Amino acid sequence: MKKVLLIVMLFIVFSETNAQTDTLKIPSLVNKKERNLWQTFTYDLGNIAGGMGYAYTRPLQWKKKQWANFGYIAAGTVALYTIDDNVDEWANNWRADTPRWLVDYGNIYGGPNTNYRLTGAVYLAGLFTKNPKLRRTGVLLISSASAAGLLQQVSKRIVGRGRPKANVGKDVFDPIHFDRVFNFDSFPSGHVMLGFTNAYVVAKHFDNPWIKAGLYTVGSIPGFARIVDRFHWISDVAFSTALSIFIVEAVDKYLDKKYDEKYNDKRTEKKVAWDLQFTSQTIGVVMTF
Questions:
Q1: Distance separating alpha carbons of residues 199 and 215, to the nearest angstrom
Q2: Cβ neighbours of residue 289 under 8 Å, at least 6 residues apart?
Q3: Is the Cβ–Cβ distance between 194 and 145 less than 8 Å?
Q4: In degrees, to the nearest 5, what angle opens at C-alpha 106 toward C-alphas 242 and 173?
Q5: Within the chain, what is the greatest distance between any pair of CA atoms?
Q6: What b/e string do you get for 28-66 counting C-beta neighbours within 10 Å, with b at 16 or more?
Q7: Residues linked to residue 288 through DSSP beta bridges, in sequence order
Q8: Taking CA atoms, which of 22, 135, 237, 285 is between 20 and 30 Å from 278?
Q9: Could you tell me the end-to-end alpha-carbon distance of the chain, in angstroms, rounded to an integer?
């Protein structure tokens, strides 16, 4: 885990530094249409890291409404916590009858290997076909999944909540461990966060409520599977789902400043803005509209 955290931090620092260097020293990057494949790729890497950082620091910019919403989520999680044992016992009545293929699908779909295969494929398809909307979707998927994945890995070690399958009850914790403790890493759920993050990103591309509901249902399968296999409590699943939505919305807001095109664009019409540009070779005024 030390290596993973170090690699992620170095990636973020390098990407941010690289993005700043490119902006200052490469005049061709002022015009996005002149970027070659490598420059586009490194620009997107910087935005993936930037989106992660923005999601983590977003609470510092919250207003009263956002804190109220967080309070509702926290209260709902606490309410579900009180019935965690009851839900786990109730699930015993139908666990054996649940189709195994459905549970296996949820466990596989919410796993990190499958997640990055899917999100990486979306991004690379957009990159190589030069489709800016698809490329931006890939960046949103990867940045959101990475932010969620790193956050849940750190949180598991801090919280140290016992899993249902540990058979120690809902209120047993073994907190503050740098290395994961087997069966004491229930909160939050990585499978739920990765699975629902993907579904929520894709659903943002559609206005039809039935399509959205279908995608949300598919994205909820990992949470259902983890309850069936007693990897997580219902409160773990609910909080992780809400956290996924928060992360996607934060990263999406950040990327709105970095890309001109997105699917189902709901942004308001851009106003004309003037910017004075200086480089080692040029000086001029750039109009953005």
A1: 6
A2: 270, 271, 272, 273
A3: yes
A4: 55
A5: 72
A6: ebeeeeebeeeebebbbbbbbbbbbbbbeebeeeeeeee
A7: 273
A8: 135
A9: 45
Cα R_g (the chain), whole angstroms: 21
Sketch the domain layout of the chain as residue ranges: 2-288
**CB 106, CB 190: distance < 8 Å:** no
Which amino acid, one-letter code, is at 196?
F
Residue whose entry in the numeric block shows the structure tokens 């005024």 = 285
List the one residue out of 249, 257, 192, 259 whose CA is nearest residue 59: 249
Kindly report, residue by residue over 28-45, the tens digit of the pLDDT. 334 455 789 999 999 999
Average pLDDT, the chain: 84
In terms of C-beta density within 10 A (0-12 exposed, 13-18 middle, 19 or more buried), how is residue 181 classed?
middle
pLDDT digits (tens, 9 = 90+) for 216-248: 999 999 999 999 999 999 999 999 999 999 999
Q: Is the pLDDT of residue 99 over 50?
A: yes
Nearest C-alpha neighbor of 147 from the set 101, 110, 197? 197
Q: Which residue has tokens 């007693």?
A: 230
Place of tokens 């890939």: 138
